[in-house]
Amino acid sequence: MTMLESLLVVLPELILTLGATDLLLVAAFSNKPDLGRRVSIYAVLMLIACGLALLGPAGNGGAVFGGLYYADAFSTFSKVLIYASAAIAILMAPRFFDRRGEMRPEYPILILLSALGMGFMVSSGDLMMLYIGLEMQSLAAYVLASFMRQDTRSAEAGLKYFVLGALASGILLYGVSLIYGFTGTTSYQGIGAAMASGLSMGELFGLVFVLAGLAFKISAVPFHMWTPDVYEGAPTPVTAFFATAPKIAAVALAIRVMFDALAPATDAWQQIVIFVALASIALGAVAAIGQSNVKRLLAYSSINNIGFALIGIAAGTQAGVAATLSYMAIYVVMTLGSFLCVLQMRDAQGRPVEDIASLAGLSKSQPALAAAFAIFMFSLAGIPPLLGFWGKFLVFDAAVAAGLFPLAVIGIALSVIGAYYYLRIIKTIYFDDAAAPYAPANSVVENGLIAVTAATVSPLGYLLVPFLALTAGNAAQALF
Fold it and tell me: pTM for the complete prediction?
């Protein structure tokens, strides 16, 4: 393959690299008052261009640069979700930051750089590429968490995320060094070939440390401790971004590592994944019950949902991977819609409100917003006929087909417990005595995105199921 052909394969990453660099220079040397909005528009256009680039060699070009980078159906599926989540996180931001005068052009630029790192993560074919992508994504995320410098909670969120993220990176890097030391290679294919002859104790320890580092990135138990505080303290558009794009990238990275590099050690990592999945579902279900802040509740909801996604991975089959990818696609829509609704929670002075109790009486003051909230909560709870039910059905079906019937039964039982706190929000909206009404939202962008996401997770979303099954199935097939 020529150098030009290789560069076409990595075209999305080239667009993000050159685009983010150019926008950074524009931000440094321009003093236009609406620069933040202008840069945001250009950033969204770049993400759309990256998505369109996946229609060419970047979507199916295979391995390039000596196997460091893979462009296949799996990476394409993941990148589409990443770019869409990043674009919506940028579109959500202007109205939130404008009131505080903090809509700076650095926000969309940091989103682009984080998306660049996530692209390397899902396309990595080597542990070194994995680590580079992970750190690029994380460094931008630390700054995003503390983006509102004058807000104590935001600064605290950024510091906590940085300290615990550095610890997780160290754990991951130690695992990488162990695997390299005992296999003699950092290539996924080379690691798989070395482990095919049997798993040594050193390789097992390396596997455990690598999975521990990845569990932190997807906020799975017991490496979830940063999630509630960071989600609550970070600006709401940033929290929406953290709950979607990095989650997709980390789950996709974990899938590629486990089914590509660690495939011969499936029996070893399968036990770990089963424990982490059940622990995440249980803690996410129980810990969210006592929350009064809606962003903290959604943080525990994300932990809970990651547990369900891991059930598909635990199955260890192609159908399980396809189920997990479908689940993550549905989860992204539900989560973005939920945070778009949270953005509408503003008092009469336009200040953000995050207390769940403030939702009381919303069905009377803003019935459309109340209906959207109810759709997202019912869907996150997995209640039919909403699309969230279909995602859970897929992962449980894959687990049963793989002979993990007890895992599916326990997961279903725990999902019933988790439904309680979603239903509590709906009860507050429709049946509690009315609280002070929110200020009306006149944002066409936010209202339009809420309408689209709500329609997608409604029963109308089942019209997309054949397309989702086809694309997720092709993505999973690329790994087998």
Answer: 0.94
